[in-house]
Amino acid sequence: MSSSPALATDALFAALAKHPRVTAGDGHPMPDRCRVEDLFDWEAVAKETKMSREALLDATFGPGPRRAGLLRTRRGTAQWPLTEEGRRQLGVLVIPDFVQEDEETKILGDFFDSETGAGLPWEEREGGGYHASFGPTFIPKSGYKVDKSKAFTELPSALDSIRSRLQRLLRFDDFDADTVNDAGVAESLRRYAMSAATRGGRQGALSQAFVQRYELDGDEMTCNRKQALGMHFDSRNANAEVVIGLSLGEDQGHIFFSRSGPHKGQPFPLSLAKALEERGDGILVELPRRALYMFYGFARYHLRHGVPWHHDAARGGYRRVTVTLRSVPRPMPTAAPAAKRRRKDGEDAKQRRLMEMLQSFAQPLEKAAPLIDLTD
Ligand SMILES: O=C(O)CCC(=O)C(=O)O
To answer: Which of the residue ranges 70-79, 100-109, 234-243, 349-358 would you say has the lowest mean pLDDT?
Structure first.
């Protein structure tokens, strides 16, 4: 077997993505902490690429024993800064203008309904800022475990048409190229996504939405927090592989991906994200207004992500809204235990007899229409 690492980067990443050891959505739990060596079935990748395990590790994460890491190794090549294609290989894809202007107006109008003052049920975000959550209810401090005793709530209807376009993108349906920019989503996911469901266009429905507000107000400290979201992983088990974000209301939006980057959960400035990217320690993605981004593969399972702050409090007048959509499986309805069901059937029969009796009293007075409709 050759140990030459002379494999094109796209072929290397395609081969790795085909043989992950564990991924969400395939019925395998993916541990939140996982050593690089445990990420892939190196035997299978070696067989496919005809490279040795050691050469594969060197090509992906840099030569041992102290490997530089995935991004620093990319930086050491001519492919840094990453091209659009380079980003897709690592699992980040941006579609500018995915949201149309009238859709954005409708969404933001509904989210901040100035006529009724209702808008969304905003809650304070841990660490600062506001968010609203739709779909599943999560058990507090459980790492986003879905509370199976609670029904999923409806997602805001203003998102309906975008969600249905996204569902079609994830199913790899054909689009009319004049109306929808499919941005090569199908090719990217077929090649670089890691779960069988997502690679096969079978990722589940987008059943969860987090809406986040990033805005300028308050003193320096709270203002920075309100514009930022600290680095974190999204649960690898509670939801399927592709996570999708929409950036609305402002032109200067960002999302930053890194493994070694700013401290977990802490707000961090854009200048730090830029410096880290220059060193090969992150991927900084600029998001114009109405752009969509999606992440999968390496970016989803190997890198953390977060949102940097960048304006100082004195400037005012910045309010960006993002919508993050995920596929969270709905819990299966559990069959009512037999005893409970028998009791309920008995109660229903009793109720029906009572209703019939009441109705018989009512008959002489209300012949045409019964007082109580028992058909339901
Ligand atoms: O607002 C964003 O674009 C990122 C949101 C995010 O990372 C999350 O909801 O986990």
So the answer is: 349-358
DSSP structure string for 6-32: ---HHHHHHHHHH-BS--TTTT----S
Q: In the structure encoding, which two tokens stand for residue 288, read together?
A: 């114009």
Instruction: Assign 260 a pLDDT band (cuts: 50, 70, 90).
Output: confident
CA of 239 to the centre of ligand 1 (A): 14
Helical axes 185-192 vs 9-18, angle rounded to 10°: 70
Q: What is the mean pLDDT of residues 101-120?
A: 88
322 CB less than 6 Å from ligand 1? yes
- Model pLDDT, residue 156: 96
User: If you measure from the C-alpha of residue 324 to the centroid of ligand 1, how many angstroms do you get, rounded to a whole number?
Assistant: 6
Question: Of all residues in the chain, what percent carry a pLDDT higher than 90?
Answer: 60
- Distances in Å between the Cα of 295 and the Cα atoms of 7, 158, 194 are 24, 23, 11
Does 307 contact ligand 1 (Cβ within 6 A)? yes
Residues in the chain: 376
Ligand 1 lined by 324 (C-beta under 6 Å): yes
Superfamily of domain 89-326: Alpha-ketoglutarate-dependent dioxygenase AlkB-like (2.60.120.590)
State how far the Cα of 199 lies from the Cα of 19, in Å rounded to an integer: 12
Nearest residue by C-alpha to atom 8 in ligand 1:
324
pTM: 0.85
pLDDT digits (tens, 9 = 90+) for 32-46: 566 777 888 999 999
CA pair distance 15, 49, nearest whole angstrom = 7
Extract the tokens encoding 156: 């805001």
Rounded to whole angstroms, the Cα distance separating 51 from 119 reads 56
* Cα Dmax for the chain: 95
Classified as helix, coil or strand, 248 is strand
Residue with tokens 């840099």: 62
Query: Quick check: 2 pLDDT over 70?
Result: no
- For 162, phi then psi, to 5°, come to -65, -40
Helix (H, G, I), strand (E, B) or coil at 344: helix
What distance in Å separates the CA atoms of residue 321 and residue 101, rounded to the nearest whole number? 14
Give the start-to-end residue ranges of the domains of the chain. Answer: 9-81, 89-326
Give the bridge partners for 229, in sequence order. 307
